[in-house]
Design goal:
By secondary structure, the chain is mainly β. It has three domains: 131 residues, Tailspike Protein, Chain (Beta Complex); 61 residues; 158 residues, Jelly Rolls, CATH 2.60.120. It contains no helices and 25 strands. The strands form six sheets. A six-stranded antiparallel beta sheet has the order 9-10-11-12-13-14, with no helix packed on it. Strands 15, 17, 18, 20, 23 and 25 form a six-stranded antiparallel beta sheet that branches. A five-stranded antiparallel beta sheet has the order 16-19-24-21-22, with no helix packed on it. Strand 7 and strand 8 form a beta hairpin.
Length: 377
């Protein structure tokens, strides 16, 4: 294989050629002096350092095996020029495609790092890929066709241990995929984390992630307020005798119930919303009910006699009596809590802002909150 050549010129700070200099070439990988030659066939060795030809206006030429080098031009008075990380030949740091044949192979180096790939860009706000790994099939790819990296360790007894893999595989439609992180256990792929466009799973089980979550609070977990409390009751569906614990809210007086929750530690202490689930025994279609939820946070060592809290409402219309009604999600309830708070909740019907001609029966509410932690540890 022919050696790569490098032709340079030495100049001073004013840009003038320096006629007589010495040239030293070292490998960037281990700082060792490179083996230089006068010819591409490697027949005639060249000293390192070597002197340039004074009659060649500062130019110099050498041949060397491809790689990354540091080239220093100097005189007895000191350094004149220094080039760092000079890629020479097809084995230079940036010539990744030439490292290995398509049939595979091994690239080794005694010094760390083995390989540096750098891509520079003026952009500061976009993903910039430094390396693209492409695996090609001779057939039509199917789901599960993958490319990736295998991580292995080897000792001085040539014992090789496969320890982990990172792979990217086709999943569904074209240009849709998943990223798979796997570890080996006694030579067999064990724990596996999969990330795709819709889910995040660990060993096939969905992992709890950030976003909206729900707590269901049935009427049976609530209590009537001491003043103007709603009436607790058991609702019967009819012939099938399905039974529901409910609270009946009056059509003329604002009545309420309460419940308390020590919110999960994973809650981001941000806004809450709620969805009322209710029914009615009387009223006409399209008549409305306004449900109001109030929340008061209490921190450690706070007085139990908390003042007014934040509120949000959900307005729903009667479809038919004795039917289940799932109301719309309320607006944001800004609780202004801190981690670990106990939150007092109060549910009211606001008859001054609705017109259902009869009691509204609350079956329960779905309380929505957002999390910013995977666990409550």
């Amino acid at each position: 294989m022919a050696l790569a050549g490098f032709n340079g010129q030495v100049q001073d700070l004013s840009g003038n050629a320096v006629a007589t200099v010495s040239i030293e070439v070292r490998r960037e990988s281990d700082n060792g002096l490179a083996s230089l030659f006068e010819d591409a066939d490697g027949v005639t060795p060249l000293g390192n350092p070597f002197a340039n030809d004074p009659g060649d206006v500062g130019h110099f030429l050498f041949h060397v095996a491809g790689g990354s080098y540091r080239i220093r031009a100097f005189t007895v008075e000191g350094d004149v020029m220094l080039w760092r990380h000079v890629g020479i030949g097809t084995m230079a740091q940036h010539d990744v495609e030439e490292f290995l044949p398509v049939t595979g192979g091994t690239l080794t180096a005694a010094a760390f790092p083995t390989l540096t790939i750098e891509r520079t860009t003026a952009l500061t706000n976009a993903l910039q890929g430094a390396l693209r790994l492409l695996t090609t099939t001779s057939g039509v790819m199917a789901d599960g066709f993958a490319t990736g990296f295998n991580f292995a360790l080897q000792d001085d007894n040539d014992v090789v241990n496969d320890v982990a893999t990172v792979s990217a595989r086709r999943a569904g439609a074209d240009n849709t995929g998943s990223l798979v992180f796997s570890t080996f256990n006694a030579g067999v792929l064990g724990d596996r984390v999969v990330i795709d466009h819709a889910t995040f799973t660990y060993n096939g089980t969905a992992v709890l992630t950030g976003g909206k979550h729900t707590i269901w609070i049935p009427a049976s977990a609530m209590r009537a307020r001491a003043s103007n409390g709603a009436e607790p009751a058991t609702a019967f569906s009819g012939a099938n005798a399905n039974e529901f614990s409910v609270f009946n809210f009056d059509q003329t007086t604002m009545e309420g119930v309460f419940f308390n929750i020590a919110m999960p530690k994973g809650w981001d202490e941000g806004n809450l919303t709620f969805i009322p689930i209710w029914s009615a025994l009387a009223g006409s279609a399209a008549q409305t009910v306004r449900w109001l939820l109030e929340a008061k946070p209490i921190s450690n060592d706070d007085s139990l006699d908390a003042g007014a809290g934040a509120t949000a409402t959900s307005d729903d219309a009667l479809i038919a009596t004795n039917d289940l009604h799932i109301g719309p999600e309320s607006g944001n309830l800004n609780v202004a809590a801190t981690e670990g708070d106990l939150v007092l909740f109060f549910v009211f019907r606001d008859p001054s802002n609705d017109n259902l001609a009869g009691d509204a029966r609350l079956i329960g509410i779905k309380l929505h909150y957002n999390i910013n932690a995977a666990t409550d540890a």
